[in-house]
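Friendly challenge for the regulars: who can give me the structure tokens for this chain first? No prize, just bragging rights.
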Amino acid sequence: MAERVHVREIDDDEGNRLLRIVRRGTGSVVTWRRAQMVLLSAQA
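First reply, four minutes later:
Bragging rights claimed.
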């Protein structure tokens, strides 16, 4: 099984930038997916 990955806390500016990427939904699918995963990981 893969090891769990922990992300550092993100500040407000980073969070807002990631939210814009996720909400916009245009551009690279890879970038959108990574932004979504970081936001979900930061919530835990």
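The chain has a mean pLDDT of 88. The radius of gyration is 11 Å. Your move, everyone else.
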